[in-house]
Amino acid sequence: MNGLVRCAYRRLELAHFYRDTANELYSEANTGNGGMAKFFKNKAYYEKIRANALLEMLAEAAYHNKPVGSQ
């Protein structure tokens, strides 16, 4: 499971990178980068969704795999 946690963390880092790139492209005045900025914004959104789905799956697996005596 440690590999899945690393994967989720990397996806979150990638989402932040995409978001920052989109923000930079949006902030540049009078450049035709609106389409590219939207692309990176969408990529950031979907990477964040994938990372959150992985983390939810891991949390659920950890919850159901608890030893019986530890409540």
Features of this protein?
2 helices; 71 residues; mainly alpha; single chain
List the SSEs and their pairings.
Blueprint: H1 2-27, H2 34-64
Strand content: under 5%
Main β sheet profile? none
If you average the pLDDT, what whole number results? Answer: 84
Oligomer: single chain
Total of helices = 2
Instruction: Report the strand count.
Output: 0
Brief characterization of the structure:
This protein is mainly alpha-helical and 71 residues long. It has helices spanning 2-27, 34-64.
Task: Kindly describe this structure.
By secondary structure, the chain is mostly helical. The protein contains two helices and no strands. The protein has helices at 2-27, 34-64. α1 runs antiparallel to α2. It is rod-shaped, with a radius of gyration of 17 Å.
